[in-house]
Design brief:
The protein has 2 helices and no strands. By secondary structure, the protein is an all-alpha fold. It has a domain at 50-76. The longest helix has 30 residues, at 45-74. The chain is flat and about 75 Å long.
């Protein structure tokens, strides 16, 4: 019975805790300081994307090279 009451108390506390999460998630930050013109984005998108594209190209070239080696080794 003691375990059952602990389970109910824990469940009730979790439900209450999650009831307040949406209120905290909807918090609005300060207004945008540069309303007069376009601003730079807060996230540096260019650096990461260019590294991912370069890694994809290198991976694709490696796959093509491996396939060509495999075909050359199968020739009689």
């Amino acid at each position: 019975m003691k375990q059952y009451s602990r389970s109910i108390i824990f469940t009730a506390l979790m439900v209450l805790a999650f009831c307040f999460v949406p209120d905290m998630a909807r918090a609005i930050g300060p207004p945008d300081p540069c309303d007069s013109g376009p601003c730079d984005p807060d996230t540096p998108i260019d650096g990461g994307v260019s590294v991912l594209v370069a890694a994809g190209v290198v991976y694709g070239l490696k796959k093509i090279r491996d396939e060509r080696k495999k075909k050359l080794n199968k020739l009689p």
